Fold this protein.
Amino acid sequence: MSDPASPTRLTPAGFLKRVESIVLFAIALVLAVLAVLLLISSVQALIVAVTSGQVRDQAIEILDSVLLVMMTMEIVYTVTISIESHTLQAEPFLIVGAIAAIRRMLVITAESTRIESQPALFQSTLIELGLLAMTILIIAVSISVLRRSQRRSSAKEDIFDGTGA
């Protein structure tokens, strides 16, 4: 008679955990390949901009692309953590949100010189910039609170485990 707690027996929950790990690995792999391709494209754009003397004209697009690579790799990092720990971490998603907001602010700022002559559009652009700045501030505070609560939680565990002072 076999032991129901035997590690060789695959339960439905164990099967789903394995499927989750496989799918998350595939997602991480696709995102990593995408990030590499985006980075290669950014480097090529930078080389073209430098050789043609248009670095200033292309700087925002290149920076935007590089920040997209950073966001993509931060998502890969988040997926990797999920694979290893089977938990969802909030901080990497907050970082991705902050990078996305910064990307949008850079694009808006670069394009704002073209719309200065249209007061209504320029005003809505300024409002969007203000909202993005508030979003970044809220995300930064959220990350700080999250880190502080993790430190407190870790310190309490140390005390209860007998490893703390």
Notes: Residues 2 and 113 are 74 Å apart (CA to CA). Residues 90-165 form one domain.
